[in-house]
Structures are given as structure tokens and as C-alpha cells.
Amino acid sequence: MKQPHQQIPAVIPTVEPDEELLVVSFDGSARVKRGGGACSAIIWKLPEWTVVAAESKYLPDLTVNEAEY
């Protein structure tokens, strides 16, 4: 008989009022057959979630490693 999975309590991170932290998000996609693709990145400053920088680009030489799919 299978045993139930053990539940691990999640630790929710907090930001103290006197701390200044950065959060970075990145995403992108590439075309498999023709090459090229786009990517975007954004940087926020915590705790107020102010956008520090954001950029999107088209990269004509971007390729996909099809072996990963």
C-alpha cells in the first residue's frame, strides 16, 4: 500500500521595511524551424514593486535546442 506524501511546510518570505531587494523576471520564445525569437526582462525594487528597468528585444540569431523537447 502506498504511503501518503509528506507535507512540507512552506516558508513565506518577507521583506522588512528597511530592506531594499530586487526581483528579476525573464521570459522568451524562439521559432523552431526559421530561427529568431524574442525575449523580455523586467527588474522590480521591493518592497514597493517599483520598476527599475524593463526591456524587450527581437534576436534574429536565437536558436532552439530541439533535443530538449
Automatic annotation (TrEMBL):
Query: At the top level of its lineage, which domain of life is listed?
Result: Eukaryota
Protein name in the entry:
Reverse transcriptase/retrotransposon-derived protein RNase H-like domain-containing protein
- Tell me which species this is from: Phytophthora nicotianae (Potato buckeye rot agent)
